[in-house]
Amino acid sequence: SLPVGLNQSAYTTIPANGDLVNVVMTSTLSCISGSPATSNTVAMVVNPILPVSVLITPDQNNICQGTLVTFTASAVNGGTASYQWHVNGVSVGSNQPVYSYFPANGDVVDVIMTSDLFCVTGSPASSNSIAMVVNQVMPVSVAIFPDQNNVCAGTSVTFTANPVNAGIPIFQWYINGILSGFNQSTFTYIPSHGDQVTLTMNSSLTCATGNPATSNIVSMAVNPIAGEAGAISGNTSVCAGSQNALYSIAPVANSSLYIWNLPFGANIVSGNNTESIVVNFDSDASSGVISVVGSNSCGNGTQSPEFPVTVNAVPESPQVTIQWPLLQSSAVNGNQWYYQDSLIPGANAQTYQALEPGWYWSAVTVLGCVSDTSNHVYVDASDPNKIEPGILVYPVPNDGHFTISIIVLSPETFDVSIFNALGEKLYEQRDILVTSKFKKEIDLRPKPNGVYSVVINGLDYQVVKKILIIKK
């Protein structure tokens, strides 16, 4: 041991761990024993000085709003330490080495740790500060829009996506739930009626809600094209001037109207734009083809096969001459002879021998087309040169086109009037001078069916003839 200190009853030193301290005292008294006396030895226990510190770490940072974050304090020389947490300088939490909460963007978190050890420095210790990065939550959505709807079959439609909070999105298009299209914000295809088009979108944003997002559903309305028109039915051969010829076609799929094409001089009088039409042919109508096509709001379908129609000319009225009792027509073929308004069965030759007195005439039929009647010839049974006086109106019945014939033995003047059943005058010709024979064709068409009166006034008498108009 080394002597230290001064000759004093107290000694101060900064010991080292393990130092042994004692003192030797020499008494000044007389008559003593045991002097100098040696004290007990004190073994010094010297603890090292411990620096205190604390470090905090979050389990995550740069997070989404609403995320729970746990902070952990790592103490140095803390012993059974006590902790005081702070958020933005405000005391929070309990006396625990961990602290959890839902941070806001920019929050600053730290902790103060107090050690319970002896011989420490830096206690209480302040931790590092953690600045929190909290990203706002972004709701993700997407809507799709077609460039057109209610379209015609075969029309290409383009859909465009309108994303919200997409970042760099990934798109997936669906038709009727079946994966279609590419990873693009537009999608083009040719839809069918009733197709259901949707889109899903994955946003690349970190704090996205509702991700992946599903778009609205677009239901496609697709209108069909008119179908193919079939064969036309009707007469393939008609007469010039013929009326009420019927032509028709089976209904064409998806057609709302029908467009007919007719030869020159053929006119639709009823049923236009339908599958069945009634046609009148002008007197100068030409042969040609009839066709029809179904149509709707999307345009025309496929045209029907062409339907050829031959328009036959109406033959000229024949001229009848008499070499008593033989009658001869100017027409070589197609004659039909009539007697007193009645057809003579089997009388079809160019000549006909009159067997009874009366009025005779002929009409010619060529390819089903009948001419107007010839001149009317009166045959007398005994004297070919005899003139039989009288007034005739023929034919009866008729379609409104008829002839008035007057034969007199000496010149007379007549007035002719025609009245309907209501007594309304429809026609009048006055002061007709007839020296021997008179013939007048009257055309009342298109007067309605019914009974009409033909009144012929002579000088001192009146003749009334009834006619019946019947339209075919």
Largest sheet: 5 strands, antiparallel
Helix coverage percent? under 10%
Overall 3D shape: rod-shaped
Total strand segments: 52
Tell me the strand percentage band.
Answer: over 45%
Radius of gyration using CA atoms only? 63 Å
**Quaternary organization:** single chain
Q: Overall pLDDT, averaged?
A: 92
Query: What is the distance, rounded to the nearest whole angstrom, between the alpha carbons of the first and last residues?
Result: 161 Å
Runs in which pLDDT lies below 50 for 5 or more consecutive residues are none
Q: Helix/strand/pairing class, anyone?
A: mainly beta
Number of helices: 0
What does this structure look like?
With 472 residues, the protein is mostly beta strands. The protein has no helices and 52 strands.
